[in-house]
C-alpha cells in the first residue's frame, strides 16, 4: 500500500496541487461574495471603474460565462466525467510536456471549483467577475479558459518546434507532416 501511495503521489502531485489551489481560491472568493453582497448587488472600489469592471453577486445554473442556463445536472455529470478523464490521461502525458500538464491541472481545478458549487449550492454556481458587457464569471471559469489557451499555445509551439527541427535536420527536403512521420515509423512506405 505504501508503494502505491508513493507512486500515486509522484504521478499526480502537480496535477492535484495546482487543481486544489484553484479550487481553494475559487471557493474563497465565492464565499466572500456570497457573504458580503446580496444577490445582484454590485461593488466597485471607484465609481469611474464600475462601467468597465466590477464585482457583482450572480448565480448561474449553466456553463461558463452563463451559457446554457438550466442545465446544472448535465454540467454536474460533465464535470465529473471531465475530471475522471483528466485523472486517467494525466499519467500518460510525458513529464516533459509541461504545457499540457499545466492545461490539464487548470481545467481540473476549474471543473472541480464549479462542481463544488453545483453540489453545495443547489445546482447554482456563484459568479462575480463582471467586465464591460461580457458575461459574469468566476475564478473556476477563468481557470478553465486559461487552461484552454495554454493547451492551444502548447500545441502550436510544439508543432512549430517540430517543423523547425525537421527543416533544420534536412534542409534540402521539405518538412514532413505528422502523418508522413507516422507512416515511416510504422515500417510502411
SSE layout and pairing:
Blueprint: H1 2-36, E1 42-43, E2 53-60, H2 72-89, H3 98-120, E3 125-131, H4 139-169, H5 178-185
Antiparallel strand pairs: 1-2, 2-3
Task: Report what the structure shows.
- The protein has helices at residues 2-36, 72-89, 98-120, 139-169, 178-185, and strands spanning 42-43, 53-60, 125-131.
- The chain is mainly alpha-helical.
- A 3-stranded antiparallel sheet has the order 1-2-3.
- Helix 3 packs antiparallel against helix 4 (139-169).
Overall average residue pLDDT = 88
| Rg calculated over all Cα atoms | 21 Å
Structural class: mainly alpha
Uncertain parts: none
Tell me the major beta sheet: 3 strands, antiparallel
Question: What separation lies between the terminal Cα atoms?
Answer: 48 Å
Oligomeric assembly: single chain
Instruction: Work out the helicity level.
Output: 55-70%
Share of residues in strands = 5-15%
The number of helical segments is 5
Strand tally: 3
Structural shape: globular
Series of secondary-structure elements, N-terminal to C-terminal: HEEHHEHH
Strand order of the largest sheet: 1-2-3
Total count of domains: 1
Amino acid at each position: 500500500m505504501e508503494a502505491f501511495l508513493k507512486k500515486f503521489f509522484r504521478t499526480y502531485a502537480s496535477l492535484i496541487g495546482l487543481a486544489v489551489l484553484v479550487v481553494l481560491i475559487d471557493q474563497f472568493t465565492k464565499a466572500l461574495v456570497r457573504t458580503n453582497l446580496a444577490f445582484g448587488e454590485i461593488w466597485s472600489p471607484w465609481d469611474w471603474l464600475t462601467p468597465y469592471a466590477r464585482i457583482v453577486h450572480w448565480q448561474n445554473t449553466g456553463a461558463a460565462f452563463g451559457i446554457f442556463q438550466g442545465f446544472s445536472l448535465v454540467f454536474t455529470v460533465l464535470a465529473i466525467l471531465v475530471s475522471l478523464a483528466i485523472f486517467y490521461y494525466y499519467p500518460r502525458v510525458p513529464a516533459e510536456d509541461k504545457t499540457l500538464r499545466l492545461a490539464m491541472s487548470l481545467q481540473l481545478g476549474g471543473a472541480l471549483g464549479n462542481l463544488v458549487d453545483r453540489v453545495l449550492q443547489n445546482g447554482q454556481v456563484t459568479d462575480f467577475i463582471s467586465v464591460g458587457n461580457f458575461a459574469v464569471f468566476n475564478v473556476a471559469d477563468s481557470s478553465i479558459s486559461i487552461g484552454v489557451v495554454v493547451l492551444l499555445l502548447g500545441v502550436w509551439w510544439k508543432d512549430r518546434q517540430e517543423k523547425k527541427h525537421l527543416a533544420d535536420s534536412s534542409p534540402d527536403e521539405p518538412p514532413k507532416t505528422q502523418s508522413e512521420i507516422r507512416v515511416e515509423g510504422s515500417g510502411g512506405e
